[in-house]
């Protein structure tokens, strides 16, 4: 079996288009099988760069055997020249193609990808309702009033979730977005009081029989991260996510040494090399690699295995299209050190679910594992027909 061509798409997420443009690749073979993968730079800025990177990398694999995922991964990493420097764009491009190849491999062998990663460790996964400051299902935010934070958490809990995630630093009391500067350095007393009030009201009104993950989106630094981390300890938070930028693992270590709440990070850490320094310093206890930008399923499995050596648990970052969710579920089903799955607010919205054939949603706070061959998901015809951009690569380049 040989790779004959690679389609690259920038999808139209309609009402989410301003912040999300999923980059999807479809790898074709001479036996009629194809596989879909995603470059995990759909949100924020960078989607056009990821689109171009997938196109460039695709030239390196034309004519190769798609079953040789390890060989192809190393070719993409080394023959691209820039791959060995790391970074989100290169790793997202590698990830998209790698996931598509695993999808082909599963289809060719007639098994779900989790079987190829070692088999299932569980039949379903616990998941949490993520980013409630933006809303949940049909209750659209953002939120400002303390009572609104209580209500949206109560709404998620009523659907069977026993864990939620909220960034308490993004919006002021009038639900207006706050600049990152207000969450950096020595925090003002009004800002601390606002967050303390929100977290305290949730615990006072709804109790402690469910978990909270506090999201920071790297808006804080080592100083403010410690100050808010003390509130995490106070309100028995499950994990404290991205309390400092991941470019300096030492700062995560500083925060870890001053609070008791486990540190979570990983969506902006790439490859085993990127995670290694966090592990050896015990700077993160819940890793959150995005399978669509950490190096795909090939590298993602290695990251999770390395995490086990350092007693770290795993929650894949999921904030892209349903392709990214499917890839994450396949890996999370197969690893012993899984902790919890992220179900993002945006993943509940039709703008994203319509882009793929299957609309997998949790039931009572638990996600089933797709059991069809491959990753268990693929692009819908609607997504292809409405794509914002599309290119087809069918010429081989030997690389450097």
Word description of this protein:
With 400 residues, the chain is an alpha/beta fold. It has 2 domains: 3-110 and 379-393, Enolase-like, domain 1 (2-Layer Sandwich); 115-368, Enolase-like C-terminal domain (TIM Barrel), CATH 3.20.20. Helices cover 37% and strands 16% of the residues. The chain has helices at 47-58, 69-79, 88-109, 113-116, 146-158, 189-206, 222-234, 249-258, 271-280, 296-309, 322-334, 350-353, 381-385, and strands at residues 3-10, 23-29, 34-39, 124-130, 135-136, 139-140, 163-166, 211-215, 239-241, 263-265, 286-287, 313-314, 341-344, 366-368, 389-393. The strands form 4 sheets. The chain has a 6-stranded parallel sheet with strand order 7-8-9-10-11-12. Strands 3-2-1-15 form a 4-stranded antiparallel sheet. Helix 2 (69-79) packs antiparallel against helix 3 (88-109). The two termini are 25 Å apart.
